Amino acid sequence: MLKTVGLSIEGKVYNVTKFLEDHPGGDEVLLSANGKDASDDFEDVGHSSSARAMMDEFYVGDIDTSTIPTKTKYSPPKQPHDEQDKTPDFVIKLLQFLDPLLILGLAFGVHFYTKSSA
User: How do residues 59-86 score in pLDDT, each as one tens digit?
Assistant: First the structure.
């Protein structure tokens, strides 16, 4: 038993179940658009004026636009500002450069001090 195949194009609903076998692009095209807005797909193919005229026989009605959910733009959650980290990047980079030099200088100082007192 064949299910009803319906789709919408430009806000109009069509029952194309009877047209599945006759569709030049094959029934897979219509089945993949079942229950969806096929406006873009329909326009991308570039249907002829006779194909557009044929649509009238499958026309069921218009879509009630009040039942279509509105799309909301995604906005990521706001991150709290971290007030603890106020150190500029320059200071951090300077310390990353100076720390190894200070440790090396300390190592030489300890070595020199222990060597001269022995």
Answer: 999 988 777 777 778 888 887 766 555 6
Measured CA to CA, the distance from residue 31 to residue 4 in angstroms comes to: 10
Q: Which residues pair with 9 in a beta bridge?
A: 12
Please state the pTM of the whole predicted model: 0.53
Buried b (16+ CB within 10 A) or exposed e, 76-114: eeeeeeeeeeeeeeeeeeeeeeeeeeeeeeeeeeeeeee
6-62: CATH topology: Flavocytochrome B2; Chain A, domain 1 (3.10.120)
Q: Which residues contact 27 (CB under 8 A, 6 or more apart)?
A: 20, 21
Nearest to 35 by CA among 57, 56, 2, 4: 4
